[in-house]
Specification:
- The chain has a single domain (3-154), classed as HUPs (Rossmann fold).
- 40% of the residues lie in helices and 19% in strands.
- It has six helices and five strands; from the N terminus they run βαβαβαβαβαα.
- It has helices at residues 15-25, 47-58, 73-80, 92-108, 128-136, 150-154, and strands at 3-8, 30-36, 64-69, 84-88, 113-117.
- The strands form two sheets. A three-stranded parallel β-sheet has the order 1-2-3, sandwiched between helices. It has a two-stranded parallel ribbon with strand order 4-5.
């Protein structure tokens, strides 16, 4: 079975994230979306909310399993017996950070591969931080996040 992990904070999950998940499902038998606790980022939504949001928007994707985690991704990959990490790249600005993370993970576990997927063009500008900034100013986010969670995100 080809299994991959798509890790992230998903604060909140966006249409760009969902696009990457759906595209990864075309490549892998199972895609484990691993929602990082990541207290250092001071997320807008609680860990439990973020896990629930991802579960809600992926419930109709049979190849997707959603889990929460904290700690090193290399350790998680051992636990899950998954040696492939999926990461999204929207722009050149993402590349340097993602490359460093890929190398850091490989230094901890040499057989851990990172595959980078670009979101479809219509989602290339979307990021969780853009969604949070728009939310903070009372703007509309319907075109940025999955419809299943609009009501919950708007009411934090």
């Amino acid at each position: 079975m080809k299994r991959a992990i798509y890790p992230g904070t998903f604060d909140p999950i966006t249409l760009g994230h969902l696009d990457i998940i759906k595209r990864a499902c075309k490549i892998f038998d199972e895609v484990i979306v691993a929602v990082a606790q990541n207290k250092a980022k001071k997320p807008m939504f609680t860990y439990e909310q973020r896990v629930e949001f991802v579960k809600k928007v992926t419930k109709d994707l049979p190849k997707v399993k959603v889990i929460g985690f904290e700690g090193l991704l290399a350790n998680l990959s051992d636990e899950l017996k998954a040696n492939t990490i999926i990461r999204g790249l929207r722009a050149v600005s993402d590349f340097e950070y993602e490359l460093q993370m890929g190398y850091a993970n490989a230094s901890l576990k040499p057989d851990l591969e990172t595959i980078y997927l670009m979101p479809s063009l219509q989602y290339a500008f979307i990021s969780s931080s853009i969604v949070r900034a728009i939310l903070a100013h009372g703007g509309k986010i319907e075109h940025l996040v999955p419809s299943e969670i609009i009501g919950e995100i708007g009411s934090k």
